[in-house]
Amino acid sequence: MTEVFSPFRGKRALAAEAAIALMTAGVLGIGSVSAGSASVIDATTLKNKVLFGYQGWFDCPLSGGGWTHWSHGVPAEGTMTVDAYPDLREFKAADLCPAGDFRIGAKQAYLFTAKTPAIVDAHFRWMQEYGLDGVYIQRFVGETSWKRSTGDVVLKNAMKAAAAYGRVFAIEYDVSGASDAGFADAIKKDWMYLVDSLKVATAPGYLHENGKPVVSVWGIGFTDNHPPADPAAAAAFIAWFKTGAAEKYRIYYMGGTPSWWRPLNQDARTDPAWKPVYKSMDAIQPWAVGRYGDSAGVDNWKKTSLIPDLAETKLNGNFYVPVVFPGFSWKNLNAGPANQIPRKGGKFLWRQAMNAKAAGAEALKIAMFDEVDEGTAMFKIAPKRADAPDKGYWLTLDADGLDLPADWYLRLAGEITKVFHGTRAVTDTIPIRPGDPMALIPRTPASPASPGFKVLAGRDGTVRFQAIPGYGAASAAAIGNLLIRDPAGRLVRTLALVNGEAQWDCRDDSGRPLGFGLYLVQAPGPQAQAMRIALP
Length: 536
Known about the structure:
By secondary structure, the protein is of the alpha/beta class. 23% of the residues lie in helices and 19% in strands.
């Protein structure tokens, strides 16, 4: 990790968003980071992984489509179907859709489509920068034919980004709303297409276990509108994927099961014939979203579900993947209570994850990376109500009275991942604070290059740079000046190194304070290595 200093204290209250990382500069000093083995997640095993569900279902007119999953028609106060507002400040307006007449202050508000490569690329870049393993890409059975006929744009975007940033991914089918008669053939046909046409199972980063591609099928065994009703049909479906299909189509089968799959009650079908169905699954992933809503419920879930579930899966030879979630709100989607299950600044999520690990779980699913519909999104979210559109209800990170940075839940997920990787101990207390400095993880090249300078503690909201002695071409004498470029690549400040040091007051050359965004501090030279700093 690169040394990092956050100068943004006091009046610049979003200190927690200050971060730096090594980056190889491209056009105008802003380009993709070079990949390296230190940043590539091992795709040969599910064990010790923390993966998100990734919906990727958001669309807007930029793609030629409509306002899918954002709203009923053009975004307006009475049409929205999402609660959380994504923090989009680092994206170009050209990659976004104007959100009707919504404004954030005096500026136009925007939303995104996952069909835009830059959006999905940024999501996977965030996963890499915050030390996250990857995702289960959601694939609703009723939409598979349509996805194939329209080019599977989002999946292709995700495959490309996973390879670029060294993340893992797996397909997760969702049988919600599918028919008893057609669900099995639909999934088989689609999986064969993915294997043969898109080469998904052999793509860089596709997750495997025991040498087979991991595929999750969510919803089988639930009581409501989830096929099949007959456990024998479910058993035959699973058997085909494990032993009946041609070798290249066989999978490591993960079942996204009802919460109460083990006692066969509440949300689970009650026929005892379902017991051997669950036993036949390679991995069990019980749904937990909304099954509890406070710390006492989290602890009770550990006692009544996690511990006995783990005991039964161990006896049956299943791998167990519990599901955790940051909070829940679907006021706009389903007229539910606002902020129905509060996040409590991450304490709710943290307790679930620590309980899962303490109970003996060796992997985890976090629901979800991008699910703003039900307020469970973990990606960057508007920190304050003033950072979301002016009209309507929006769940922002200050809903519980806390001052949090937009990336707070990515940070928490990174810490949870460390616990499951075995590099951080289980702890009841969140080990980071919103005001702590944050070093983004660089995609380390095979022969790591240094920018030739480092960041030291500054004073009064400034950043202090110091040349690294003995760096050769990037020594203090060779560097001469440091060049600072804004998020659009424009040169905004030139700093002269005096006695090997320079101090930046976060202003441009004319003395104007610089606004939010990722700024590159670059030493001239053929490698154009740079340090990336986020200003709030």
